[in-house]
Every structure is written in C-alpha cells, then in structure tokens.
Specification:
Oligomer: homotetramer
CATH topology of chain A: 2,3-Dihydroxybiphenyl 1,2-Dioxygenase, domain 1
Number of helices of chain A: 6
Helix content of chain A: 10-25%
Distance between the termini of chain A: 50 Å
Order of helices and strands of chain A: EHEEEEHEEEEHEEEEHEEEEHH
Largest interface: C-D, 54 and 54 residues
C-alpha cells in the first residue's frame, strides 16, 4: 500500500515582512490593502485581514532591508507538531524552539534549503474583535470594514530559491506538503513549484532565483471573495498611485485570478481570487507544465512580465 | 492533550438522486444545470460538473419515487478506509461491502441514524476527457463548456432528519467530520447542523424533518466560481421555466450565496458560491445560532421561505 | 408623420431630500453610501457621487419633516429651457423662476399634478476636484475614493402619487419625457409608471400612493458599475446596521438589480445596477405589465415586500 | 447663445462585416459570441444579440475580402432623417438612397472622408421572437439563451482612417455626433477620436491608419452586462481556441473593460462592459489625451499591444 497522506500541518499562518519604509508600508497595508492592526511590539506591527481567525497573518517589521523575516505554519495539534519537529530534525534543518510573540506561543524554527526561516506552532492566540470591529454575522472573525481592498484572508506566499528541486523534496518531508503543480524546463530544471498542506490549491510557491541569491522573497497574497474584487482593487491601487506590476489576469498555472503591486518598500503583494477551485483528490498527481507550454503566457495570453522573473526582495545587483 | 483531528475521509464524492421523471430530470441536469454525462448503466446515468475529477458526482437513477439513493464519500487512503469501516462497525451502523459501479471500486455502505444510505470508498475511476472535452488548461478536469449554469463542482448535500442531534454525534464518530455551525432552538433541540471532513466550511448539512419521516432529502449543491454566476444561473432558470424557490441571497449560516430551484421531479437543487471562505483552523469551535438569531432571516434580511422548512423528497402528506 | 421626439431636457440633475435627523443622515450618505460633500449653505449640505459631473446631485436639507424638497432636471441648452418653460406655463403648472443656489444658476420651478416641486435649469456649476480628489483618469469627475458603497452616479428618483395616470400625461408634455414601462391594473388604474428623458431606461418613476396623501417620496437611487457592487453594498449596510428593506434581487419591471435601505431619517435609498440595458429605440413602445403579470413578483420570484407599497416619506398615519 | 445639440440620429444600428471564411465566421458569431440568426438573403446572414431590438445588428456577408461593408445609424424620425440627408448632401458626401434589405426600409448612403460607406434610415423592422425565443420578461427583445458569450447588444464600431482630424469635423456635421474623447499627439495629429450620437460614451471610434490605406476596419464591439461576463468570455474564447489579442483589461480612454479577439476571417471583435458610465452632460467638453499620457498604457498599466496599432481588415502589406 502507498503511504498515507500527512495532515500534521493545518495551514499557512503568517508571514513576517521586512520594510525599510515602515510608515509608508504600514499606510499601504492598512489603508490601501485593508488590513487591521491588532498589536505592536518592538519594531513589529501585527496585521490581519478581516476574516483571518488568528491574531495576525502579517508581521510587519521595520528593518534595514526588505524581504521576508520568517514564514509560519500552524500544526493541527500538539502531537502533530511534535511529529513535524522530529521529522525536521531528522532532515538536519532545525534551528530550535523560540518563545513565540504577541500572536502565538512557542514555535519551532527551521531553514528551508534556500535559507528562508520557517516556524511551526500549535498554540495560538485567536483574534477577539473589540466592540467596534464585531461582525454582524458571528461566523466571521471581524466585521468587513470595507477599507481599501478589504482583502478577506491570507492566501499564500511565494519565495525565490536557487534550487527549486531541492525545495520540492524538502517541504513534503518537513511539513507533509503536497506538490500540486510545477514547471519543469527542457533542461530538467524545476522553474517553479506549488505546494499545499490542505485543500487549498497551494499555500506556498517557489520560483527560481536567477540571481543565485538566497533567502529572497517573491510575494505574499491575500484572497478576496470574487474576481470583481480584484478588479476593484486595481482601481483602488490606480487611484492611490500604487505601482501595478501586472494583472488583473488569470494564471495558467493554478488558474488564480491575480493582480500584483509593490508596497512602498518594494515587496511584491498580490490580491487574488481562486474561485471555487480546491484540491479535494487525496491522490492528486502533480500537474507538470513544460517550457513550451509556459511560453504561451498566462491563461488568456498575457505575456509574463519580465520583472516577474527578476524582481525579488531584498533586491540584488542583477535585479531590474 | 486533546485528541487529534481525523483525516480519514477526503471529501464528499457523489450523490445518487432518484427521479420519477428521468427524461425531464436528465434534460435539467445536462442542459440547464450544465453537467456532462459520463456513462449509463441500468437505470442510472452518471453525471459530473466540468471540474469534478472523478467519473461522476451525480448518479441519476430512474425510480418510482424521488429523493436520495445514497451519499458517497471518498477516503484518503485504503488504510484510512479500513479505519473508518472499523469505527462504523463499532457504531453498529454498517450495512456491508458493495462491489462498486461504473464510477468506483468496492465501497462500504452504512446507515446514518435517519436511515439515509452512505458509502465510503477509496478506489475510484478518475475522469479522462474525450478529445472534444479536453480543457485548454491541463489543471482542469474537463473543458468549461459554458452550457447552462456550467457549475464547476459538487459542493455539498443537505439531508432531512428527525433527530439532528443524533446525527451530530454520529457523523464525527463515523467519518471524522467536524461540526462547523449549528442551530440550537430554545428548547435545546438541534434544528440544523453543518459538518465537514476537510477545509470546506461544510460538505453536508442536516435540517430537522418536521414531518417525522425518515431518510429524506433536502438538496444537493453545485458550486460556481463567482457570485455573479449565481445571478446568471437565476436568469437561466428564469428563461427555462425552472421553478425558483428562493434566492439569490446570502445565508447567515455559513455565508453561502445561494439559489434554490426544483428539478423537474421535485428534488431541490442549489447553485452556490462560498467566496474565499474556508475553515483552516484545526480547532475551530462550532458556531451556534440561537432561535432568536435565526429569526432575523438570511444575511441581508430575506425571510426564510416556508417551503424551505417543509419541502423534501420524497414528499410526504404534510409537505406543502 | 408622427411628431418628433423632444430632446429639451438632458437628464435628472439632483434631488433635495429633507431630513429631521441631519447629522445621522449626513453620516449615512457620506460614510456608508459614499457620497462626497461639496458645499454647505443654510440648512443644506450639497453632496455628490464620485462620477457626478455637477456640483451636487443630492441636496440634504435639515427640516422638521422627511421626504423630498424638490427634483431638478438640467436642460440641453438655454433655448431648450425656454421651450420647456413655455410648455409648462401652457400646462398651468408653473411656479416661477428662482435664483439658483450653490450648485446652479437660475431655475424654473413647477408642480407636478401631485404637488411635488420640480425645477429645470441649464446654467450649472460643474464639479472641480480639489487636489486630494483628483482622479487618476481624467475622464472621471473625481477619484473613486472607495468609501462605503462608493456609488458612481445619481440614477433615478421614485415618487408617490395619488393619480399616476395624470403624471403619465403631464411629464411627457412638460419635459418631453417618454413612458418606457408601466403597470396597468385590471381596473384600468395605473399603478406605476417609468419615464425617461434620455437613453437611460428611466430617470423617474411614480407609484401609486394608496394613502391618498400628496407630494410624497418613495426613493432615490444611485448607480454602481456592477451587480457585484450591489452585493457588496448589502454587506456594508449589514455591517453598519442600516435597515435593509428588500433585495438584492432583480426587478421584473426595467430589470434593475436593486437593494433598498432606509437612511436614518426614514427616506428610502436604492443602490442599483442596470447592466448594459439602454433604451436606444427612438419609437420605443411602452411595455405594459398587467396585474396578473405583476403578481409573479420580481424577476426571480421574490415577492414584493409589503412595505414597498406602504412606506413613503413623510410617513402618514396609514403607513406601516 | 451657443448652437443647440443635434438629436437627429438615435443610435448605431448595424455593421456589415465581410468574411472570406463565411462558415467559420458564422460559427464564431453564433456559437461562440452568441448571436442569433434572424434571416438570410443572397450572400448575407443577419445576426443580432439577444437584446438588440431590431432585426439585425450584424450583417455577415461572404466576400472575397474581409473588413467592413457598411455602417448604419438609425434616425430619430423621418423628419430628422431628412435633415441629415440635407446636411450630408451639403457636405458633398452623399451616395444616394438604397432600397433597404431584410432588416430595414430605404436608407441614405454616404461616404466618410476615409471612404467607409455609411447609411442612415428610420424605417426599420423590429425583431419579433419566434415561440422558442420569447423572453421570460417582456421588456427584453429575446430570451437570454446563454449560448457562448451571450452578448447583450451591439455597442460600437471602430474604424481606421488616414486622417482622423477630418473625421472629427465630418461626423458632427453629418450626423450631429459629439466628440467625447480624443488623442492628440505632440505633432498635433489626431491619433484617435471617440464620438457618440446619444448618451453612450461612444458609438464609433476612429484610430489612425498608419498604413495609409483607406476604408479599413478596426473592430466591432458587443456589450455584456457585467465585467465578470467579459472574464467569462475570455474563458469561452480560450476553450474554443479563439485568438485573444489583448485583455481583459480596462481602457484608460473611455474606461471600457475590454477583450479583443479575431474571428476566423481575421476581423477584430471586442466584448466589453462600460459599467454605469454615460455621458449625460449636454455640454460635455471633449477629453483630450496627450501623447505622454497615452504612453502610460491602459488604465491599470497594461501596455497597448503592438498589433492593436497595426492589424486592421482587410490586411495590407505593412500589417503584421
């Protein structure tokens, strides 16, 4: 019999983003993207979308550089967390336990093969809305305040890596992630890989870093309920002078309806909608796109914009 | 430590619906709802939505009565299936193994406390599109043919039961389902209960059968990608003379954007969109709606239509 | 040869609404509906939607009662205005010239047969956005600020009248309006009438006032670009505790996708979308709905809510 | 006093399109775009969208070349038609009366300065739906059959011209059209001009033909009710192998949400949505875009695709 799927990790929990323009970045995330601040500590501000159930999904940290601080996943139970820690230690990728912060209890940190820092935890702090933020419908974390793009929840993160094939081996072993789609070039190199720990079609994606830098960040994505909300987000970005890199359009890979912008410090942010698409099949076979297929561009023919392959944070010399 | 969540069942797989007007029902499901026929055997026609990955999600069977034949869930592995069979047998609810049909291999059948027939299986037949149905994007089961409402995938089923509280105990024990929302009346009676085995907010719902009949069916739901598609479905139903019972509107419970119609034999069918809402929290606590809260009607104030509480299939004397 | 269509009046220009809760009404129109204040004078505040080209489309006036102050149309030219004044004086409906206000120059006032006050003018003050309100695209009056429902432009007004048949004669004679749709009861009484001066399917509607009061107001409507925006408005109203009377749903008459709420003083306000529907035919024949046809409810079967027939402003004893 | 606006022409009525692949073109227009055939005569097939009120809005004519046969406008009355004929004859642009065809009575033909053939008429044949095409709502020309893109109505036509400035003088004089937007290059040359005879923001556009050919065609556009329908059209084109040139995206000029494809014979076809945007102002001043402004690309930053400036029908040597 084939080995059983692993369900130890529940979901992508939060992303720590570094900014060297903290005031401008905060204004973007709160007033334009529409996140809500739930707390501050040290150089960090904790932010969340109106239907994120935890204390935060974005930890915005003032720093001397941009890019990602760490990526966090929440385990399905303490027992599951212990199993993952054991697996990661066996892989030799562990960093060790940290005490947690405003948003959650103790967490276990590790590196992916590209030196991005991850953490996993179970003990969390769920968001309790203050009076003015209580939703009209009790099955929602916070009222939909309608501010800016008013994104609903964290969706996924996209990282750059020198060796995506190594990631493709590592994450399933470390977290129990499944590869749902990938791009394999004619040379056999893996140019992109999309993985998930649950029924979302992906919660993390890696694309190849052609600069050979390590630990870089491509984008973080928040989900909206409808494709029309992505179009409205485009109008909001336009009216607020936010740089729109590409979109709205529909990806061929994963079929996500996307829109990419840069927040003031240069980190790429996506607003996206996946429609009703989910991976329900427990033995889903990865969809592999060839180099020829990817040359067709996005779903409706839009050519992939050059900066999508070159711009990451922190920027490096060869970035555009 | 609290017990760990169970992940033995992957998803709701298909529903067998009985019709005493097979030709009219088939025309509805194919040309108006937009399903595609994948096979026929005996009195049954196998149907699926364009992004359903299995051979079928609806088995439409000509019969002398309406209502539901059986409800099927797919397990996450053979091992998980064996665990569920053991659990169900321990509950004394088992019927036994059946050999499968055109759509899947052997399956284990059981009764819920209201005598609805369920089956669980792992061995399935995945849909392979014939040349004319091949999708432009290879990460999709079949081309989106755009016929009728062109629903994307099976979403959930809703059954009637005399004792919903009994169901609320049974399904988590049998399938590892989680209760995500429920309605508890002032009397303590459970008027409705929504459960899921995965990250969908629910794949099955039970509402109280006030006629005290057993084994009755409330509705089956197919998902579309956008709320606008539900509105378009309303226009399609209108133009085709399909009886619209209620909607489009947004449910308070689960926030689903809904539209209910009756197919020609009287079985209720829903076209729905859930937006980006998912249950990602591994220790999600059930949301309990009180009688007073439910008297407010649906999310935007629409009063729940009387027939929603009374019409089920097969009809009984006290039905309207 | 048949007489030529009249094009002397360009469009519905603004509505003066009376409120006995001016602070609460202002908060509703600015922060929830999403209008912008362009000026104040005396007891009135001038408001407009972000793509209204004139200084204002809503004049909100503090008063001891609710309902409508006056309704204004803009003429296509000074010559056209003079022709209309002559026609109205011939009808014996004239009140006389007034000097205008913050929003426009001199205007000619008259009564409709139900004693609502109208005015027509040509000389107007076009909106010039201050720096913070300049749009990114210069073909738009003001930036789309995204505040509240962020409605785009004034759409139409609906008044109550004891004798709708009299209105149906009067408005075409006074303004050159065309009747596009109407409801004629089995008794021959006209229960509703929709008229337009341009290619919009209607800019004014009258429905019968069963209380036999005069000069009452039914609702004012602002248009949004998409049906999805009406659904979003419903969520915004829900979260802000605004009373939703009925909708979102699609009218059978005129096919407008509608949502009705009461602003804090009790005046009914609609957020609506007409899709791409226009009256382009220069010899369009009025569509007449019978009593039987109207008993089918709205387009998708929603029964017309009772208060829609009874609630007007100012309220009268027999109102609900 | 300034001269009064002219209202002699009601609307763009139909476009005759030439195809050298008549069977393939017909399949595209009927089964993919979703028009309905209302008649045939000679080499022509008459087609219309489901809410077009006339017998046809597209006359598809088999020919040895592609491009446009003629463009027709309907007058507001017989008297108005006579006035326009007199004006056109005075301009020296007249061709003379023709007897009409299946779709309308006698029409007056003339040339624009780029030698495109136009006709104007008042006497028309309104569409009467056969039993199977009767709409559920009587205020609609035909049932919304939901076939293909199921476009609602003809929207506008775009022609190429060597001298757009000459057109900008001619059409207002000939038809009473108003210039609503234009692109004026730094050289003073007019690169594009958008005109309307009614409240639509434009019913015809001209863009500069850099090949110096005459009488060429750029595209014809059908309107859908919602932006989401444009996105769905993109999926339909994708699944049917139709070449998508560019879009969906939002134009900066006129803000139209657009999608361009080539029908099998190479004529460009647009599916578009204008939201609630109308030109209601009777003294609207043309919006003039500079060369610098237009270099910013479309509303959300999409660069205008090269072929948009070069591909016209019939193709000429310098076309791409």
């Amino acid at each position: 019999m084939t080995p059983e799927p692993i369900h130890d990790i529940a979901h992508l929990a939060h992303v720590e983003l570094l900014t060297d323009k903290p005031a401008e970045s905060l204004d973007f995330f709160v007033n334009i993207l529409g996140l809500t601040e739930s707390g501050r500590e040290g150089d960090s501000i904790y932010l969340r979308a109106w239907d994120d159930y935890e204390f935060h999904t974005l930890k915005l940290t003032a720093a001397s550089r941009t890019g990602v601080g760490h990526i966090a996943y929440r385990a399905t139970s303490e027992q599951a967390l212990a199993r993952r820690v054991a697996a990661i230690e066996k892989l030799g990728a562990g960093i060790g336990w940290v005490g947690g912060d405003l948003g959650h209890g103790r967490a276990y940190r590790f590196h992916d093969p590209d030196r991005h820092v991850f953490e996993i935890y179970f003990d969390t702090r769920k968001y309790t809305p203050p009076p003015g933020e209580r939703p009209a419908l009790k099955n929602q974390a916070q009222r939909n305040h309608g501010r800016g793009c008013a994104v609903r929840r964290l969706d996924h993160v996209n990282l750059l890596a020198r060796d995506v094939a190594a990631i493709r081996e590592f994450l399933p072993a470390a977290l129990g992630s499944r590869v749902t789609e990938q791009i394999v070039l004619d040379s056999g190199a893996v140019a992109g890989c999309w993985l998930t720990v649950n029924n979302k079609t992906y919660d993390i994606a890696y694309t190849r870093d052609f600069t050979n830098s390590e630990g870089r960040f491509h984008h973080v994505t928040y989900a909206v309920d409808q494709r029309e909300h992505v179009l409205e987000a485009a109008d909001i970005f336009l009216e607020n002078g936010v740089f729109i890199e590409t979109g709205p359009h529909k990806h061929a890979v994963q079929q996500t309806f996307f829109l990419y912008v840069y927040e003031p410090a240069g980190n790429r942010v996506e607003v996206a909608n996946a429609g009703a698409r989910l991976i329900l099949d427990p033995d889903w076979q990865p969809v592999t796109w060839t180099e020829t297929e990817r040359k067709k561009g996005q779903a409706w023919g839009l050519k992939t914009i050059e900066s999508f392959h070159t711009h990451g944070t922190p920027p490096v010399a060869s970035d555009h």
